[in-house]
Design a protein that fits this description.
82% of the residues lie in helices and 0% in strands. The protein is mainly alpha-helical and 141 residues long. 1% of the residues are buried.
Length: 141
Protein backbone atom coordinates (compact mmCIF):
# COMPACT_ATOMS: atom_id res chain seq x y z
CA UNK A 1 0.00 0.00 0.00
CA UNK A 2 0.84 3.65 0.29
CA UNK A 3 2.61 3.26 3.64
CA UNK A 4 4.99 0.66 2.17
CA UNK A 5 5.78 3.00 -0.71
CA UNK A 6 6.65 5.83 1.69
CA UNK A 7 8.90 3.51 3.72
CA UNK A 8 10.65 2.45 0.50
CA UNK A 9 11.23 6.08 -0.52
CA UNK A 10 12.56 7.05 2.94
CA UNK A 11 14.84 4.02 3.07
CA UNK A 12 16.32 4.70 -0.37
CA UNK A 13 16.65 8.43 0.29
CA UNK A 14 18.63 7.73 3.45
CA UNK A 15 20.84 5.30 1.52
CA UNK A 16 21.46 7.80 -1.28
CA UNK A 17 22.32 10.53 1.25
CA UNK A 18 24.80 8.17 2.92
CA UNK A 19 26.32 7.29 -0.47
CA UNK A 20 26.60 10.93 -1.55
CA UNK A 21 27.87 12.43 1.71
CA UNK A 22 29.17 9.43 3.60
CA UNK A 23 32.40 7.55 3.67
CA UNK A 24 31.87 5.68 0.40
CA UNK A 25 30.92 8.76 -1.58
CA UNK A 26 33.12 9.64 -4.52
CA UNK A 27 34.32 13.18 -5.11
CA UNK A 28 32.22 13.28 -8.28
CA UNK A 29 29.08 12.40 -6.34
CA UNK A 30 29.84 14.99 -3.66
CA UNK A 31 30.48 17.66 -6.31
CA UNK A 32 27.22 16.80 -8.08
CA UNK A 33 25.35 16.90 -4.78
CA UNK A 34 26.75 20.28 -3.74
CA UNK A 35 26.22 21.72 -7.22
CA UNK A 36 22.61 20.49 -7.15
CA UNK A 37 22.02 22.16 -3.81
CA UNK A 38 23.28 25.46 -5.19
CA UNK A 39 21.41 25.26 -8.52
CA UNK A 40 18.17 24.05 -6.92
CA UNK A 41 18.19 26.77 -4.26
CA UNK A 42 15.62 29.52 -4.74
CA UNK A 43 18.27 32.22 -4.35
CA UNK A 44 20.23 30.90 -7.35
CA UNK A 45 17.62 31.70 -10.01
CA UNK A 46 16.78 35.00 -8.33
CA UNK A 47 20.46 35.95 -8.22
CA UNK A 48 21.00 34.99 -11.85
CA UNK A 49 17.92 37.01 -12.83
CA UNK A 50 19.36 40.06 -11.07
CA UNK A 51 22.74 39.49 -12.75
CA UNK A 52 21.05 39.35 -16.18
CA UNK A 53 19.05 42.52 -15.44
CA UNK A 54 22.11 44.49 -14.27
CA UNK A 55 24.14 43.21 -17.24
CA UNK A 56 21.40 44.31 -19.64
CA UNK A 57 21.29 47.82 -18.17
CA UNK A 58 25.09 48.11 -18.35
CA UNK A 59 25.10 46.90 -21.97
CA UNK A 60 22.57 49.64 -22.79
CA UNK A 61 24.78 52.25 -21.14
CA UNK A 62 27.85 50.86 -22.92
CA UNK A 63 26.13 51.06 -26.31
CA UNK A 64 24.98 54.62 -25.63
CA UNK A 65 28.49 55.71 -24.62
CA UNK A 66 29.98 53.99 -27.69
CA UNK A 67 27.61 55.86 -30.01
CA UNK A 68 28.07 59.27 -28.40
CA UNK A 69 31.80 58.83 -27.80
CA UNK A 70 31.41 60.32 -24.31
CA UNK A 71 33.17 59.32 -21.10
CA UNK A 72 35.82 56.94 -22.39
CA UNK A 73 36.92 56.05 -18.85
CA UNK A 74 33.45 54.74 -17.97
CA UNK A 75 33.30 52.91 -21.29
CA UNK A 76 36.63 51.20 -20.53
CA UNK A 77 35.36 50.25 -17.06
CA UNK A 78 32.17 48.77 -18.54
CA UNK A 79 34.27 46.84 -21.05
CA UNK A 80 36.10 45.19 -18.15
CA UNK A 81 32.85 44.48 -16.32
CA UNK A 82 31.64 42.59 -19.42
CA UNK A 83 34.30 39.97 -18.70
CA UNK A 84 33.09 39.66 -15.11
CA UNK A 85 29.56 38.95 -16.33
CA UNK A 86 30.89 36.43 -18.85
CA UNK A 87 32.76 34.67 -16.03
CA UNK A 88 29.54 34.55 -13.96
CA UNK A 89 27.62 33.04 -16.91
CA UNK A 90 30.33 30.41 -17.50
CA UNK A 91 30.25 29.56 -13.79
CA UNK A 92 26.45 29.25 -13.89
CA UNK A 93 26.62 26.83 -16.83
CA UNK A 94 29.36 24.84 -15.14
CA UNK A 95 27.27 24.49 -11.98
CA UNK A 96 24.21 23.45 -14.00
CA UNK A 97 26.23 20.80 -15.88
CA UNK A 98 27.81 19.52 -12.67
CA UNK A 99 24.40 19.30 -11.02
CA UNK A 100 22.45 17.80 -13.91
CA UNK A 101 25.05 15.96 -15.94
CA UNK A 102 24.92 15.61 -19.70
CA UNK A 103 21.16 15.13 -19.74
CA UNK A 104 20.55 18.85 -19.21
CA UNK A 105 21.77 19.60 -22.73
CA UNK A 106 18.29 18.56 -23.90
CA UNK A 107 16.78 21.54 -22.05
CA UNK A 108 16.14 24.35 -24.57
CA UNK A 109 17.07 27.09 -22.07
CA UNK A 110 20.42 25.41 -21.48
CA UNK A 111 20.98 25.21 -25.25
CA UNK A 112 20.20 28.93 -25.48
CA UNK A 113 22.59 29.71 -22.59
CA UNK A 114 25.35 27.62 -24.20
CA UNK A 115 24.97 29.52 -27.48
CA UNK A 116 25.04 32.92 -25.72
CA UNK A 117 28.04 32.03 -23.55
CA UNK A 118 29.90 30.59 -26.54
CA UNK A 119 29.28 33.77 -28.53
CA UNK A 120 30.43 35.81 -25.52
CA UNK A 121 33.62 33.75 -25.16
CA UNK A 122 34.45 34.02 -28.86
CA UNK A 123 33.72 37.76 -28.83
CA UNK A 124 35.86 38.26 -25.73
CA UNK A 125 38.71 36.24 -27.19
CA UNK A 126 38.61 38.18 -30.47
CA UNK A 127 38.52 41.46 -28.55
CA UNK A 128 41.57 40.48 -26.51
CA UNK A 129 43.42 39.36 -29.68
CA UNK A 130 42.53 42.66 -31.36
CA UNK A 131 43.75 44.66 -28.36
CA UNK A 132 47.00 42.73 -28.23
CA UNK A 133 47.55 43.24 -31.96
CA UNK A 134 46.93 46.98 -31.67
CA UNK A 135 49.06 47.41 -28.56
CA UNK A 136 46.18 47.99 -26.13
CA UNK A 137 44.47 50.78 -28.05
CA UNK A 138 43.44 52.74 -24.93
CA UNK A 139 41.05 50.07 -23.76
CA UNK A 140 42.08 50.30 -20.14
CA UNK A 141 43.11 46.64 -20.03
Amino acid sequence: GQVDWLKYIRKNFERSETRVHGEGASNKMRLRSYSSKIVDAKFFDITMGIVILVNSVLIGIEIDLSITGENENLLNWLFGIDFLFLFIYVLELLLRFLAGGRRIIFDNWIKFDVVLVTIGLISGLLTIIGLMASGGGGSGI
